[in-house]
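Before relying on records like the one below, remember that each one covers exactly one chain. Contacts with other chains, cofactors or solvent are not represented anywhere in the record.
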Amino acid sequence: MPLIRIEVSDFKSYRGHQVIGPFKNFTSVIGPNGAGKSNLMDAISFVLGVKSAQLRSSQLKDLVYRGRRLAKGPLDGSEATQDQEDDDNSDGEGDGEGTAKKAWVLAVFQDEKRKEWLFQRTISTTGASEYRLNNKVVTYSAYNAALTSHNILVKAKNFLVFQGDVEAVASQSPRELSRLIEQISGSLELAQEYEKAKEAQERATENATFNFTKRRGIAGEIKQYKEQKGEAERFESLCDQKDDLILKRILYKLFHIEEALEANARDIQTKSKALAGLRAEHGEHEKALEDVRAEQARARTAVVREEKKAKKAEKALEAKEPELVEVDAQIKHSSRKLQNSQKMQEQVGNDAERQQAKLHSLRRDLANARQAADEAAEAHRRASQHNTSLSETSLAEYRSLKASASVLAVSERQALETLSRDEKTASRTLTQVRAKHEELERNQERLRGDEQTQKASKSELEEKLAALQGDHARSKQEYENQQSERTRISRLETETNEKLADVYQRLLQAGVDRNESEREAKLKETLASLQRIFPGVRGRVVDLCKPTQRKYETAVSVILGRNIDAVVVDEEKIAIECIDYMRTQRAGQATFLPLDTISTKPINDKFRSFARGARLAVDVIQYEPAVERAMLHACGNALVCDTMDVARYVCWERGQEVKAVTLEGTVIHKSGLITGGRSTHGGGKKWEEKDVQGLTRLRDNLVAQLQELNRSKPRGKADENVIAEITRLESAITVVRDDLSACRSRYNGIKEELKHIERELKKLSPELKKAQTSHSKLSSQIAELQSVIDSAEDGVFASFCSDIGVENVREYEERQLKVAEEESQARLRFDQQVARLTHQSQFEEEQLKLTQSRLATLRNAAEDEQRKLEELEEKKRTIQVEITEAQEGIAQLRETLQGLNDVLEEKTKHVDQAKKTHAKAAKILDQALKEIGLKNDEIEKLALERSATYRKCRLEDIKLPLLEGNLKNVPMEENLREEVAMDVDDDDGTQQPRQVQDYGIEADFDSLTEEERADNSPETTAEFDAQIAKLNGEIERMAPNLKAIEKFKNARDQFNDVKRKRCELFNMAYNHISDCIDQVYKDLTKGKASPMGGVAYLSLEDSEEPYNAGIKYHAMPPMKRFRDMEQLSGGEKTVAALALLFAIHSYQPAPFFVLDEVDAALDNTNVAKIANYIRSQASDSFQFIVISLKGSLYERGNSLVGIYRDQDVNSSRTLTLDLTQYDE
């Protein structure tokens, strides 16, 4: 297992020190999107020395963990604030933002001999980088040499496949593929030497050709030249002069290089001494910032604690207010019950008094009736004394005659007796029926009165119920309206919050949180003031126009140039007034473009369709017609070109004197000069700022809408009042409904009873008539029989009646019977009256007792209700006192909170001031470090120039005067691994002069004059070069170069030797890769449907010098015909690219292979094939680390490394699972 584990500390999303691994032969890295999987890939690349730009960051310090730990509330209930920060520490374990000062990654590697190697790379937020090998600080050269010794070629990166790069590998051009193989084979290191040798060969060829031609012309003049001895001596003198001049030129150059090296070293040492003070000052400001931040955090904690107390008190107050409303409702209810009870008590009292009076009246009537009965009995007794009375003889006679008469008309007497009995029966029946009829009529009258009473009560209750239901409906409608309004406001708040969150997200993506410079902020403030004071100020050019597409932003900003911040006004007078205002307010400087006087050139329409890919700048921006003159002035006839080729075609080939700007910002001026590089105007950021301003305004509007919605939201107290009213009305409605239901039941019962009585009356009327008819009939029959009997008796009692002086015996009997009957009837009548009055008085007495009992109950209920009402009043007073105390407490808390907020605001100002001071000190420190870095770079540049000069002296056999050393110590070839620019970051954190190689050589500068030593101007160097060139010209005119042919042969041999080496290295790698790629592609593509797999091969475009041409890669998937690589699907390209990568890696293989989501475009079948291939190739000497989201791939691994996001600490975390324990 070559790569055992990776240790990271504060690297990108990994917070603190974390150990990732151990890694097996085939390790799969899994996890959700955004968890930090690709950051593991970046960590591996970083520790191997890959450049920061390829790690998805612009500079090294961006790799340091910059996250913010999420705030968590303490257990005691106090609220912690998000801005509370712990002390900074080097491991980044603080809770604040930006607490980590450095980050490092450690790779533990095991070689073939089981020896562990520790590769560690550390970077700091200042940009300094440090390399450690086995816990020892080393240079990058030694670090990279150790990696190279294990076949880890950082420059080639043939063992790293980044996310999204896999298809690009298959789709790369033949030339790019050729360069890749050059890097793998090492032949690229000979490229520079190859070009130099080739150039030397061509130059020697030209010289040899020229000299050969020249020799033919001067062959006959050789004797003449030999005879001209003075000319020869002059030739030798010129050669000596040239050599002396070249030596002096070299000494002059070396002297000033040495002086510059010493001056730079002195400057670095001087700045390093000042650097300690700057660091101390920076540390003091940093400590001061930490202190004021801690004070701010404490003040914020106090504010939050006080706010919590205030909110708790307000919540308690809000809880008391519904209690008060409830008590008020209970008091009203109790008051109504008490009033009703008192009314009922008064009514029952009146009933009792009425019943008492009625009872006294009945008792008085009973006494009178008894007295009248006694008086009537006495009167009858006295009256009976005055009636006719018979003697004993007459009575005996009367009885004898009565007995004689009784034998007469016997049948009639028997019939009369029978009829008399029937008549009595009929009379009783008639009396009963008549009494029942009269009773029913009385009940009917009574029930009709009750019916009218209950009907009135029902109508009254129905009206009361309707009124209560109306009030309830209105209260409920009011509550529903409040709820609907609350729901509407909540919905609007939700929508507004979603919009606000989207705006905040877009602002965050746009980088709104960056700090504006003071000048920009002041310029915007000044412009706003001008627009407010002067109506004719329209705004800046950048605010008045916008490119039609984002790709034009850089080009348009370059074209606008200094006019991009110019202010457009309507009239020149307004511009002068604005300038006076800015001068008075000392608001800086600004350029004004008055629309009425500004000069504009007409647009040349021929440029609108002059060339494909070129368009006028005014055509690619949007602006209002009112500011057209300003836009024409700012843009003119400038062209926006898609590429540099289009711009060259317009300006050079077609010879148009027009300003052409490419999309990248490169400018070809009218004069033909080219200006390249990034624009200093910020490119598209100007228009992004305009979008950001729009987003900021939208954010402010949304915040204002939220505040307005919060103000218009119905308060909880109003809801509670309405709910209390609804509850009261519902209770009242329930009571009224019960009363109404009882009233309706009574009313319906009365109506049913009336109907029953009416039915009984209808049924009783025929019986009454029948009884009357029967009684009348019996009475007539009795009269007839009585007349027959009377006639018989009259004959018997004729003499007796005449003796006693009556007409007939019946008169005597009637008189006597009448007196007895009257007396009996009188007695019966008085007895009935007395009995009736007695019963009625007893009934009234019982009713009076019931009424008095009810009255006592009502009095007790009233007393209970009165006590309850007093308790409720006391409770109400208590709640009111509590509410008053709570309001006073809240007011006091608000005052305290205001004081704490003032303190917090003051602390925040101190923090802002400390931040500014700290930023200023950090800026000074960074500037000092930057200056030291520039000086070191200058030292390195001068050292390279010095070694090149030494090498030139040795090559050209120039006798350089030396005090110490020997030129033989200078190597003839440059060390490419150390001096050729690598694809890695340089160490720029040192604070001492950079140690450069001088090879132990010290030149003798005594031959230089004082003027030459003091003068280091370019003119002196140019003068030396001009003199040397002049001497060379004279020497070449005097004598041909007789050694040109020999130099040509040497140059040709040297070139052929470099060419042979380069070809051998390249062909060795190419042949190996070409032999392997077909088998690898077959292994990746074969399956049940195609057991043989596909076909893949490489072809050279130039077999003689393959590195100068390209290599074509052909892949033919199974069961498909040949097609170009561009016509393959995404999955087929991925498989082809992986086959190429595996084949390339097989040549000088690195011990491990890291793949980042290369299976994104593959289906499950191809993913399984890739997994099987990797599983079969993985071994102790060839390790695979694969980042994947496909289950069919990572389930085949020997181990799993799971990466997840720990939201509590806002960091990536890892888990490791060994899958070999589950192997069957």
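Residues 70-97, 218-227, 512-516, 975-990 have pLDDT under 50 and may be disordered.
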